[in-house]
């Protein structure tokens, strides 16, 4: 049973709860989203496995998850990137944001999301239980893909991808 860290709007831990229960109750909890770029400036997208408890089959950022109670968020992000995408790279914090959305199955995603970026151009070895597909994509092509099929993307990705590209290009 995986637990998440419940937080307030300042990202201060206020408790812990089983992950599914936190999503059923829509309680604010800590999460992270990783955006990995290659040397050409393309973003590595993943398409979530169909068996995910929400947003299965949708395109999203390179990797995302939740740190466990008493686990450092950056270390959790680095570990999860290896578990899901089969590689490691140095990650750096870019920004954090709050979001809340409901899904058709009654679950509510309410997260204080830490966004990390990294660079990588090697071999991707995705965990097929987590990832059904992946692709490198340039910003212009991503914009076209989103314009033609916005429902093919996760809610949180659509909320921040423009800001990620802007902030990443400012700092890289």
TrEMBL record:
Domain Nudix hydrolase: 27-159
HAMAP family named among the record's database cross-references: Idi
Keywords: Cytoplasm, Isomerase, Isoprene biosynthesis, Magnesium, Manganese, Metal-binding
GO biological process: dimethylallyl diphosphate biosynthetic process; isopentenyl diphosphate biosynthetic process
Database matches in InterPro entries: Idi_bact, IsopentenylPP_isomerase_typ1, NUDIX_hydrolase-like_dom_sf, NUDIX_hydrolase_dom
Designated name of the protein: Isopentenyl-diphosphate delta-isomerase
Active-site residues from the entry: 64, 111
Signal peptide coordinates: none
GO molecular function per UniProt: isopentenyl-diphosphate delta-isomerase activity; metal ion binding
Broad class of enzyme this protein falls into: isomerase
């Amino acid at each position: 049973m995986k637990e998440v860290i419940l937080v307030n709007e300042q990202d201060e831990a206020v408790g812990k709860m089983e992950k599914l229960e936190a999503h059923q109750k829509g309680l604010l909890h800590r999460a992270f989203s990783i955006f990995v770029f290659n040397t050409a400036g393309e973003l590595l997208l993943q398409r979530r496995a169909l068996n995910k408890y929400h947003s299965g089959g949708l395109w999203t950022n390179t990797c995302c998850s939740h740190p466990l109670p008493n686990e450092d968020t950056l270390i959790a992000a680095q570990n999860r990137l290896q578990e899901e995408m089969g590689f490691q790279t140095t990650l750096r914090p870019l920004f954090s944001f709050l979001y809340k959305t409901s899904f058709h199955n009654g679950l509510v995603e309410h997260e204080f999301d830490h966004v990390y970026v990294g660079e990588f151009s090697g071999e991707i070895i995705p965990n097929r239980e987590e990832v059904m597909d992946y692709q490198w994509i340039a910003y212009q092509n991503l914009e076209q893909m989103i314009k033609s099929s916005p429902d093919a993307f996760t809610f949180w990705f659509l909320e921040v991808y423009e800001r990620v590209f802007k902030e990443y290009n400012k700092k890289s």
